[in-house]
Design brief:
This protein has a 6-stranded mixed sheet, with no helix packed on it. Strand 4 and strand 5 form a beta hairpin. The protein is an all-beta fold. The chain has no helices and 10 strands.
Length: about 120
């Protein structure tokens, strides 16, 4: 069973930056499209961005131009560089396969944007 572990969240002021990491187990990482998702309190989990095995990327409009997704297949790790953070970016951030997530989600990493 594939496991994912997200890290790198924290408290940041509006306009600040954070880089999230997602380490995955298993040798199938390199053949999967991987995505970053988030879930804010009282809201459904939403896709933010995904990256293909050959590093093609897609972003939703709300993060386009501010967030950058990348991956290191040798390390089975996917990253999310987040710049110009806004209070509405406050959420728990998750990574998983896209479009069909692995059955097991990680704990996520909390990002709080507040002054």
């Amino acid at each position: 069973q594939v496991q994912v572990v997200e890290s790198g969240g924290g408290l940041v002021q509006p306009g600040g930056s954070l880089t999230l990491s997602c380490a995955t187990s298993g040798s199938i990482f390199g053949i999967n499209i991987m995505g970053w998702y988030r879930q804010a309190p009282g809201k459904q989990r939403e896709l933010l961005a995904f990256i293909t095995p050959h590093t093609g990327t897609h972003y939703v409009d709300s993060v386009k131009g501010r967030f950058t997704i990348s991956r290191d297949n040798a390390k089975n790790t996917v990253y999310l560089q987040m710049n110009s953070l806004k209070p509405e970016d406050t959420a728990v951030y998750f990574c998983n396969r896209y479009p069909e997530p692995f059955s097991s989600w990680g704990q996520g990493t909390q990002v709080t944007v507040s002054s």
